[in-house]
Amino acid sequence: MEISLVPLHFVYLAFIVFIMGVLIKRRDTTMICVIGIFALGWMATETLAGSVSGIFNSFIFATKELIGTIFIISIIVAMSRVLIQTGVNEVMVAPLTRFLRTPALAFWGIGLIMLVASLFFWPSPGVALIGAVLVPVAARVGLPALGAAVAMNLFGHGIALSGDYIIQGAPKLTADAAGLPVADVMQASIPLVIVMGAVTTAAAYWMMRRDMAKGTWRDGLVGAGKADDGGAVPGIGEAAPAATLSQRTKRWLAVLIPLLFAADVAAMFLLRLQGGDATALIGGTAVLILMGVTLLAHRNQGLEQTTTYLIEGFQFGFKVFGPVIPIAAFFYLGDSAFTELFGQKLPDGSHGIVNDLGVALAHWVPLNGGVAAVTLTVTGAITGLDGSGFSGISLAGSVAKLFATAIGSGAATLTALGQVSAIWVGGGTLIPWALIPAAAICGVSPFELARRNLKPVLLGLAVTTVVAMFLI
């Protein structure tokens, strides 16, 4: 049944176009989203009080939807902080360094270790956990510092974060905006993440070896550890409270912690835990590890230091998601949030603003999978231009839903494609200010790292888009 569009639909669409224009100009979209929420609220309630209240209520709605993601990332960062302070991270990684005997083994070894660490700890904490240990080892076997930074960056902020299969922060955002189960988006993203990761890392490695052979490679070294931004783990480089463990205790913890997370993964498969249940299992395990290690390391101060680490973790979590909440609040209005907040103000038979626009688009414009795939890749890339990766993926999910409705299929694939594109561009592989954690650990320029990543990432996006066309 064809749905008649009302002014609310066109206002929402106009703000989407406006937001994309602002992103292209590399400006912040938070204020635009808040104005969009106000405008939709005014049209729905026709009262000043209703539209003003709608801003706050939409923030509450978005926070309720995202609170599990915010908490898991905050807790993981808090746990990572105590592992770094106690040196447990060094003991965990040390046995792996014996395999890094050549530049090739160092590049792929650092990348794979970073991939695993980032899946469980998130990339920014992962960089701090393993970078300080592995980068000097890589340098001794002939891998340039910039090569190590590229490996850590592409495998961590690229492959691991674009899939985000353990913590599930990224698929949660895009799936909600697209009105899909998280599991559907995660499953659809697997072939795209594999293709994107394989093409990008292979191209980056080949280009590195080629330039080293030609003598045109440059590392762009700077003073390591001097940069600081929102991507770094809170407290890294600051004066830390005394946290001492015996070498034997560190070794036991270095074995026990990976085993606990491995047990979590096994439980996910055996008990078929997905989405919030899987996240809760990882989060609860991280809290117990945080408490146990803190009590062992700080002894009489363990009670107070547990709280301190949690505060630092939550500061990081809300710093990352602070700009995401108002943006997500606007895009949630494209689905069920609008009716929940403002009542049934849409035409009878409406399935939400975005769905209605998708149906209308199907009648107005001849679309196919190719056009939809290219559009989602471009949309995802544009949303990543602010260097966050997460702030715009709600837009990618919303646009994916619109195009999937129009062509009648491919909702999960298009959503996953937008997610992969947004994360690879903005999550920390192409935007210099998002590259600072990896660049600082390796002592290289974030601008040189972005330049080195540019061609491999663009090649990967092109190939992944073509693959997505066949999967829709």
Question: Could you explain how this protein is built, in words?
Answer:
By secondary structure, the protein is mostly helical. The protein has one domain (7-471). Helix content is 75%, strand content 0%. The chain is built from 20 helices and no strands. The chain has helices at residues 7-24, 30-45, 48-86, 88-93, 103-121, 123-140, 145-163, 169-178, 182-214, 247-271, 276-298, 302-321, 324-332, 336-342, 353-364, 369-383, 393-407, 411-426, 436-442, 446-471. Helix 16 runs parallel beside helix 18. Keywords: Membrane, Transmembrane, Transmembrane helix.
Helical percentage: over 70%
Distance between the termini: 23 Å
- How many discrete structural domains? 1
What's the count of strands? 0
Low-confidence stretches: 223-239
The chain-level structural class is mainly alpha
Count of helical segments?
A: 20
The mean pLDDT is 83
Strand content: under 5%
- The quaternary organization reads as single chain
Which descriptor suits the 3D outline?
globular
The ordered string of helix (H) and strand (E) elements is: HHHHHHHHHHHHHHHHHHHH
Radius of gyration: 23 Å
Q: Could you give a short account of the major beta sheet?
A: none
Protein name: Transporter
Organism: Paenibacillus filicis
Keywords: Membrane, Transmembrane, Transmembrane helix
Topology overview:
Blueprint: H1 7-24, H2 30-45, H3 48-86, H4 88-93, H5 103-121, H6 123-140, H7 145-163, H8 169-178, H9 182-214, H10 247-271, H11 276-298, H12 302-321, H13 324-332, H14 336-342, H15 353-364, H16 369-383, H17 393-407, H18 411-426, H19 436-442, H20 446-471
Transmembrane segments: 6-24, 31-60, 66-84, 105-122, 188-208, 252-272, 278-297, 309-333, 371-390, 402-424, 430-447, 454-471
Protein name: Transporter
Keywords: Membrane, Transmembrane, Transmembrane helix
